[in-house]
Amino acid sequence: MPTTGNLLSPKDLSIAIGVSESSLKRWTDRGLLQVSRTAGGHRRIDRNEAIRFVRARKMSLVRPEILGLPGSVAANPEIDLTTLENPDEAFLELMRRGHDLGARNHLFQRFLDGETIAALADGPIRESFDRIGELWHHGPEGILIEHRATEICVGLVIELSKMVRNDRAGPRAIGGAISGDEYKLPPLLTTAVLQEHGFRAVNLGPNTPIEVFELACFTDDPEQRPDFVWMSINDLPPEAPGLSSQVIDFAARCVEENLTLVVGGRTARELDFDRVPSIPVHGSMTEFAAFVEGWNAERN
Amino acid sequence: MPTTGNLLSPKDLSIAIGVSESSLKRWTDRGLLQVSRTAGGHRRIDRNEAIRFVRARKMSLVRPEILGLPGSVAANPEIDLTTLENPDEAFLELMRRGHDLGARNHLFQRFLDGETIAALADGPIRESFDRIGELWHHGPEGILIEHRATEICVGLVIELSKMVRNDRAGPRAIGGAISGDEYKLPPLLTTAVLQEHGFRAVNLGPNTPIEVFELACFTDDPEQRPDFVWMSINDLPPEAPGLSSQVIDFAARCVEENLTLVVGGRTARELDFDRVPSIPVHGSMTEFAAFVEGWNAERN
DNA sequence: AGAAAAATCATTCAAATCGTCCATTATCCC
DNA sequence: GGGATAATGGACGATTTGAATGATTTTTCT
């Protein structure tokens, strides 16, 4: 965790500008960068001095968020996001304002600090969209915020998923959100989590009919057949009761054919899986990730 | 070891391009390639700037992976794409089979060879989705292909758009697809083309009500007010005649308020803009890009 | 308060990069 | 083809960088 307050350690700043700690300390010794010292002789760099330094030398920043820059916090002095007790609140605020770079810096800092994609999905992302979703009913402004935030977040999740993807052969997974479910983010996040765990994951996206799931899963071509299927259910329209039984039929067939099916999403638990009790139903991405880890361990 | 992160050393890039370090340094000194400097005077090259450079100079990459880019197109043994006379056919075939890596190789190779995002949008991407769209009516298999291809392509376009984006201040653009238009790709491509031309572009995504456009465009906050608005119309439902006149009212108000509005998309020409003849309507991304270029030139 | 863990110190050294010069190769113009 | 011009790649000593070291300081935890 970067040093709190207004003083940076040499390591923090060296990470921010993507240079070795040794070099940074040499620069301070040459007087290129002012430092104060603790009683014990450790260097402490004032944030403003750090900003002056990178500006004066036109250096590019690898991780601007460490300086509290991306044009985000510094350009929006009205709200100092660092004072917010809950980091998820900061992300929400950035998304609400459509501040794409700030949101990217925030999310990526947490990712690089070790949070998994699943944790980010259940934390800042879900939190933000829960709150932003409430706005949606408050007229055009809510819709504007929701649309903008969704597009930004789609881009960020895709960027994250390309960072964790490895192209070696892993188990094949396929999935999507069912008919009538128009949410783009849950399938994307699920794909990202699977890629994080070494899968070759195919995303069918939102609003995918059951027939398409069946076709994709029960193909005769052994090259195409997946090892793992997931289904996201975030918006089960009440006017489609037939859909519910279709899903359960599909689940039953997956059990028959010995294919792992996992169901998740906000309204997934509303389905009655008593007929096929072996179908795991998850309420969060963290749960899902834990299951995937177990499945992977069992497989090897 | 290639430098980690987003900054390359001259040696890294020289190896990637397959050219001597001397030449590379000479190019930077002539300003052909932007570099930042460490405090000690060593050159550091931003990845996106490196990509811009090799593209502008039409150089071939000996080691593309150093820039995080795919290798040659030939990396697809299963499909011999070289026998296809039309390269767009090759892309279609890759998308049809859901071959994400192959599609990425193909698209990025052409991008590196100098094709603009607009050209790729009108070429392989539009071509493929025209053909894939026909399949859509042929039952589940068509839907499967279309869903999978869409998700792959969304990822690729986002990746491309992040390569051409520069974070310096440019004119602000905002836009999206109107109510009832659920296509995700056109707004994404439009955003990418605008970023390619230096805009700070905000994407409101598909299915955006007119009221949201009005709110976003005619806000009183001068910090938020865009310089440029675009609207994508790919699927005007005939049962919504009111929508048509709403769009035209919005266009009229844009003219009044001296805000540039551009309309595009498959069914855009079906609208009757006689009342506001100064609204440009485009049928292709190439046309749109040409207009944007002109607008930019006029502005400076 | 005190012990254990983590971060930082100053220093050293090999590898990378600097700027510059020069011989060789490619390109252009007649 | 021949000569002028520009671009390339390699070599040079000087400087900068990044990683490792063992000693010290700061932070964390009980």
SSE topology:
The structure is a homodimer of 300-residue chains.
Chain A: E1 7-8, H1 10-16, H2 21-29, E2 36-37, E3 43-46, H3 47-56, H4 87-96, H5 100-112, H6 117-135, H7 140-164, E4 172-177, H8 185-196, E5 200-203, H9 210-217, E6 228-232, H10 241-256, E7 260-264, E8 281-282, H11 285-299
Helix pairs in contact in A: 1-2, 4-5, 4-6, 5-7, 6-7, 6-11, 7-8, 8-11, 9-10
The structure holds a DNA duplex (30 and 30 nucleotides).
Describe this structure in words.
The structure is a homodimer of 300-residue chains. By secondary structure, the first copy, chain A, is α/β, with parallel strands linked by helices. Chain A has 3 domains: 1-69, Orthogonal Bundle (Multidrug-efflux Transporter Regulator, Chain: A, Domain 2); 70-164, Methyltransferase, Methionine Synthase (B12-binding Domains), Chain A, domain 1 (Orthogonal Bundle), CATH 1.10.1240; 166-299, 3-Layer(aba) Sandwich (Rossmann fold). Chain A contains 11 helices and 8 strands. Chain A has helices at 10-16, 21-29, 47-56, 87-96, 100-112, 117-135, 140-164, 185-196, 210-217, 241-256, 285-299; strands spanning 7-8, 36-37, 43-46, 172-177, 200-203, 228-232, 260-264, 281-282. In chain A, the strands form 2 sheets. Chain A has a 5-stranded parallel beta sheet, with helices on both faces. Chain A has a 3-stranded antiparallel beta sheet with strand order 1-3-2. In chain A, helix 8 packs parallel to helix 11 (285-299). The longest helix of chain A has 25 residues, at 140-164. The two termini of chain A are 35 Å apart. The relative contact order of chain A is 0.08. The model of chain A is unreliable at 71-80 (pLDDT under 50). The interface between A and B is large, with 45 and 42 residues. The structure holds a DNA duplex (30 and 30 nucleotides).
